[in-house]
Amino acid sequence: MLKKMGLAALAIVMSTSIVACGQKSGDQNAAAGGAAKQVKLKLGHIAGDTDPWNLGAKKFAELVDQKTNGSVKIDLYPSSTLGNDRDLIEGMQLGSVDFALVAGVLSNFYQPYAILELPYLFRDRTHMEKVLYGPVGEKLKADLLKNTQVRGLQFWERTPRQLTANKKVTTPADLNGLKIRVPEIPASISAWKAMGSTPTPMAFSEVYSSLQTGVIDAQENPLALIESSKLQEVQKYLINTNHVYGYVMLTMSDATYKKLSPDQQKAVEEAAKEATDYENKLVYEQEKEQLKKVTSAGMQVVDVDVTPFMEKAKSVHKDFAKTPADKELYDSIVNTK
User: Fewer CB within 10 Å, N or C, the chain?
Assistant: First the structure.
């Protein structure tokens, strides 16, 4: 009897030890990220729900969720819900915005980015890709972080910027007196002035109503943003000037980045890269459908000889490549083959 009781007691001790070891192992796995405390983050941008930006952002949020086992959740705020580009960048610097999709307005926070906004800087899409996804692009991201505390995760592609107006434009002479909304970017303002128009800087959230009320006559943006913002309702002509092969950057507050664990940081970076491939493919796949939508709404497409527009716009390039650093960046872009 005593022998049986001793064996029973030993069995209880052993089973308790096994459970305890299992719990300890589970706690260690949770600490590694399996059941970490959930972090909720905000991602804002100015484009609409159906824009490739937002669809790419959704993919990014899904991938982060998967790669962190649900420990990092990203909520999306499209259509300027968290403010315009400047608000989003300032929010990332303050830590009140965690992620944003922003582009040219970055030049107001780190001046060399103005070079990227110069009309007719990139020869074509291939040239742009070689710059953004090569050594020049990596340096641009590193310098942005150093100077603004905003972390550039990935460059996302956009189709070329086109002009829309209620007046048919075929030559630079047709731009005379035309009030064109441009972003709050010095390079855009100078180039459109050189092409003969009257550039009017304003936040994108004000563009539709300003076109509707006649405050401005025209604007310029990639087709995806034109269509998703329904500018075809207040603009008659789509003029194919192809003046900027541009980007939008998936950015992150460095303060937010530093709050994440190393595993979470790695997951965010991996998700950003995968979402970039998704968005870049989507943006060009959707272009035909977007064109169909704006023309079905009555917008007329105007193809132009871009050479005279290019000649006038390029006259201001030198004004944005004066300092040794800016000239080095400009030359490295132009000389990328």
Answer: N
Which residues have C-beta within 8 Å of that of residue 251, sequence separation ≥ 6? 89, 92, 99, 100, 101, 102, 106, 144, 150, 151, 152, 153
User: DSSP code of 132?
Assistant: H
How confident is the chain (337 residues) per 10-residue block, as mean pLDDT? 42 42 39 66 95 96 98 97 96 97 93 94 96 97 97 97 97 97 93 97 96 98 94 98 96 98 98 98 94 98 98 96 92 96
- In angstroms, rounded to a whole number, what is the distance separating the alpha carbons of residues 162 and 299? 13
Q: In the chain, which segments carry CATH 3.40.190.170?
A: 38-158+246-287, 161-243+290-329
CATH superfamily name and code, 161-243+290-329: Bacterial extracellular solute-binding protein, family 7 (3.40.190.170)
Quote the DSSP letter at residue 184. S
Q: What is the dihedral of CA 256, 258, 262, 268, to 10 degrees?
A: 30
Question: Looking at the domain 38-158+246-287, which fold is it?
Answer: D-Maltodextrin-Binding Protein; domain 2 (3.40.190)
Which residue in 141, 112, 170 sits closest to 300, CA to CA?
Answer: 170
3-state secondary structure of 244: strand
Do residues 145 and 152 touch, judged by C-beta distance below 8 A? yes
Distance separating alpha carbons of residues 205 and 240, to the nearest angstrom: 23
Go through 192-213 and write b for each residue having 16 or more CB atoms within 10 A of its CB, e for each that does not: bbbbbbebbebbbbebbebbee
User: What is the distance between the alpha carbons of residues 245 and 156, in angstroms, rounded to a whole number?
Assistant: 11
Burial of 178 (0-12, 13-18, 19+ CB in 10 A): buried
Instruction: Give the strand pairing for 150-157 and 247-253.
Output: antiparallel
Per-residue model confidence (pLDDT) at position 35: 53
Taking the chain, what is the end-to-end CA distance rounded to the nearest angstrom?
89
